[in-house]
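Each lists sequence, tokenised fold; shown next:
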Amino acid sequence: MEPIDRRMMLSAAGLLGAAALAKVAEAGPINPPAGPIIGTGKTLNEVEPRTALDPDAFFSNIVISAPGSYYLTKSFEGQIRITSTNVTLDLNGFTVTSNSTISNQAAILVTIGQKNVLIRNGRVVMRSVASAGIDCQMLQAGCVIEDMQIVSELSGVQTVYGIRCDGPLVVRRVTLQGAFGIGIGGVGGDFSDCVVLATAASAYGITTLGVAGTISRCTVLDVGQGPCLDAGPGSLVTDCLVRGGRPGIALGGRCRVVRCAVFNAAGAGVSAGSKSTLSDCVIQGTTSIDLNASGRGVLAIDRLRLERCQIANTDGGGVRATSFDLTAIDCTITENNGWGIDCIGPAQIERSHFANNTSGGITTDQLTRVGQCHLDFNGPFGVRATATSGGGVDVVDCTITRNDVGVSLAGTSGSMVRRCTFYSNNSHISSAAGNFALVAVGAASANAATNPNVNLAL
């Protein structure tokens, strides 16, 4: 029976194969029909009708006055003026150079009230004093600029923009080089993968012009008179590299900065409005410019939150919070000429490392917790609490070594040092009466001398 079954199976397989071949045959002949090959799809122009912009001379003034898709056929000196909504302009790899004989001297100008404009794939050169390389005047919505290079051949400080937009702006993969008043500026929007390379005469790098926006994966180097990144209230700044600026990054309130690096800024590495957060950032080498902005890594108003930040080698101290509610968690703050953190309580400082800060590790006044921190070689103080009212400074589970004074509790009573380890400080604990040292390892003599209320030193 087995041979018969196998023959039946092979026969069935043959029938199935024949049916499949018959089905393929229904799709048409294998050989193409005789005659010329004729396309059955749509042309590129049918998919997206495009109009060529062909400058009739080296100097031209081109006006786009109707919706549509346009592309440039050659480089020229002059201006492209867009006076319509719903326009796509592809420079097609060519260059537009601004010219001083045009009344509004932007190389590419989008006039007042337009929207849904895309400008892409080319180069703009600013050769004379101009309002902007690309200027979008009072744009209502939807301006996108991508894959562009903008070069200024101007010198000195100029009140001009590389890109300027009086409405929401999206800028992707744009490089700007040279002296600008502002490199890229829009009223809010999204700026990503951009590079601004400027001279010391430049004023700003990228700005959201006081409105919430997103700045991501951008590099801004060597602007001179203003911030490299200027983010309005509620903005998000991520994965950016900044060198120079006054400050490096300026933030309105309620901003968040994530995975950014700021080097060699002037006045402040980051100047933060109320309720701002910095996470996983590196800030180094901030220099002083005047008494009011004296080279701090982070200069903040209130409600500043720092998470996993590294702040080092500044001229004026690591962090200065001029009002209440500072939080610093898992930070490294070292080698600063001034305090590591200078704040006004309430404050919470946890699991952070302070070393070689010349004025001290931490100074606060009241209602502050310093927990699980390591404070080493911080000049006159590891921790200093200066409260004259309120009290409530709690230094707990810290390692405090090789400072002149490990912990100084001055002023009012009610502060505590608990479960801390002291080593090689000239004076471990200096405290007014009524404050407490509980289980302070290595500081027994200091406890007995300065803390008559409780002495449980190991």
